[in-house]
Amino acid sequence: MICNIEDLRQRARRRLPRAVFEYVDGGAEDEYTLGANRSAFERYLFRARALVDVSTRDQSTTVLGEKLATPLILGPTGLAGLVAPWGEVLAAKAAANKGALFTLSTMSICTIEEVAAAAPPPLWFQLYVWKDRGITRSLVERARAAGYRALCLTVDVQDMGNREKDRRNGFIVPPRVTLSNFLDVLRHLGWVMRMSRSPRATFGNFIETGALPKKDAVSVAGFTNRQFDPSVSWKDIEWLRSIWSGPIVLKGISCAEDARLAVEHGVQALIVSNHGGRQLDFLPGALDVLPEVVDAVEGRAEVILDGGIRRGSDVVKAIALGARACMVGRPFLYGLAHDGQAGVELSLDILSKEIDRTLALLGRPRLADLDRSALRLDMLHSQSESRAPALRVLEGARGLPAGSATGT
Ligand SMILES: Cc1cc2nc3c(=O)[nH]c(=O)nc-3n(C[C@H](O)[C@H](O)[C@H](O)COP(=O)(O)O)c2cc1C
Ligand SMILES: CC(C)CC(=O)C(=O)O
């Protein structure tokens, strides 16, 4: 029975070859930040009001002027088309059906044009800046021509995060059958059959550019570190402004100074994010950074929280702390692995039903009723309760008390 996002995760684990599941599910190095994204939500408790008429509830909102039925944005996820054939198209259609917003990754399997042709607006396009600025400019121009509403510039991939699971699995694009994954692939013949309906098994947006190696498969880190431009800085926001007239959203902000700089550079929205714990390990959980960023922005840009959302109550906490909406990555990918477009819709239904119930039980029937008084800020759980999974394993294996591996 599927009750929640964790149930969908277990379905995804069974349906996907190990290397694909771990690419989706895993994080960087000790996965401290991956765990902290979750435990940050556990630190906040609610402060509920009784005897409020909650017979009419409303979780609709607007993000950059777009009306959404639910405050959920499907985040950019590279290679979603390896989770299910036409994965990005299916997820974009699911988002539209459920009144959420879809963000297409630069590194998607389906192209900018394929997604825009299949799914109604609003769509956002996520940009990685390539060393070849001609390629970068052409991506932006293609997104504009295809009708994407906002450009979401990801700023936390100066170098690909150290995802040791991908290295151990030999995860490459396009995926190949090798001696070491042969048995696992045999156990997932359903996925192999489904993927035969895929338009391709590599980064769709670059087929025409000549940037993809003609014959060889590439590791994600090897390829992106060759192509992404680590020199990108604040002055490039001006350059982007000169080639993109719509809203610019910065994804990957994790402190007040950068939030202020973003506002000074005229950015319309920023996403508090640590890339789902896939980049710099030992950043705090995204929710723990949110209040600092919201306070620094002072209402001059919209703030979106990204990372660790697994329950509707998580979304409600983020909005109470000042987020306009929340971005989700893995939750919809688990749904996509489970049952394609219907699975993504199920993941959105689960979250929005949970948001609705939380609003009722909290005595705050509309998102607009949420503020910090909906939370027990006087009862924040201690930070040391958030434990990196790898450290927990280490402590368990050595019979050490919790906290001893880091001295917390
Ligand atoms: C499989 C996968 C691929 C991702 N690819 C991208 C990407 O191409 N661009 C990007 O900005 N973020 C990417 N992300 C990060 C997500 O946009 C988002 O920040 C993260 O998944 C949020 O954490 P959550 O999975 O806990 O919701 C990816 C995440 C996953 C899980
Ligand atoms: C294909 C990758 C570059 C996508 C990404 O950003 C990620 O895996 O986190």
Q: What would you say this structure looks like, in words?
A:
- The protein has 408 residues and is an alpha/beta fold.
- The protein has a single domain, classed as TIM Barrel, CATH 3.20.20.
- It contains 16 helices and twelve strands.
- The strands form three sheets. The protein has an eight-stranded parallel beta barrel with strand order 3-4-5-6-9-10-11-12, surrounded by seven helices. Strands 1-2 form a two-stranded antiparallel ribbon. A two-stranded antiparallel ribbon has the order 7-8.
- Strand 1 and strand 2 form a beta hairpin.
- Helix 1 packs antiparallel against helix 15 (330-362), helix 4 (87-97) runs parallel beside helix 15 and helix 14 (312-320) packs across helix 15 (330-362).
- It is globular.
Quick synopsis:
The protein has 408 residues and is of the alpha/beta class. Helices cover 42% and strands 11% of the residues.
Write the layout of secondary structure elements.
Layout: H1 5-15, H2 18-25, H3 32-43, E1 61-63, E2 66-68, E3 72-74, H4 87-97, E4 101-104, H5 112-118, E5 123-127, H6 133-145, E6 150-154, H7 164-169, E7 172-173, H8 182-187, H9 189-195, E8 218-219, H10 220-227, H11 235-243, E9 248-253, H12 256-264, E10 269-272, H13 286-297, E11 302-306, H14 312-320, E12 325-328, H15 330-362, H16 389-398
Parallel strand pairs: 3-4, 3-12, 4-5, 5-6, 6-9, 9-10, 10-11, 11-12
Antiparallel strand pairs: 1-2, 7-8
Flavin mononucleotide binds at residues 23-24, 37, 75-78, 105, 107, 126, 154, 251, 273, 275-276, 278, 306-309, 328-330, 333.
